[in-house]
Amino acid sequence: MTTHIPSADRDKTLETGEPVVRLTEKAIQQVKDILARENMDGYGLRVAVVSSGCSGYTYHLDFALQERPDDMVVHLDGIKVYLDQASAPYLKGTVIDYVSGLQGAGFKFNNPNVKSTCGCGTSFSA
User: Fold this and answer.
1) Residue 56 belongs to a domain with what CATH number?
2) CB-side exposure of 124: number of CA atoms within 13 Å?
3) Taking the mean position of all CA atoms in its chain, how far away is CA 108?
4) Full-model pTM
5) In the chain, how many domains are there?
6) Tens digit of pLDDT for each residue in 58-79?
7) Residue 76 falls within a domain, yes or no?
8) Are 43 and 34 in contact (CB under 8 A)?
């Protein structure tokens, strides 16, 4: 795992030097599978926190072909993960997993900054 963080954003790494956000092996494989299935060579995963939902914030995942000027870029096992500067503080220490079960499958955010979540589990406060 390698991490490219512009010098202006070095304070957005964890105290241990780890990237702001990490993906489990299952999550990385799922992203790779989607990119391959959709023929999206060269794309990366954009992870963001947006104001929305009954608790204040929700996570947003999308694919992006290139980084934006204010992005920090984390390279995780061949996947580029783009984080905007506004979202990075809310994501600090977050581990994204991919889980499947009887109720469906999807990406799960394990975020140590979350203070509370809404009843439906799709939004959070920090």
Assistant:
1) 2.60.300.12
2) 17
3) 10
4) 0.79
5) 1
6) 889 999 999 999 999 999 999 9
7) yes
8) no
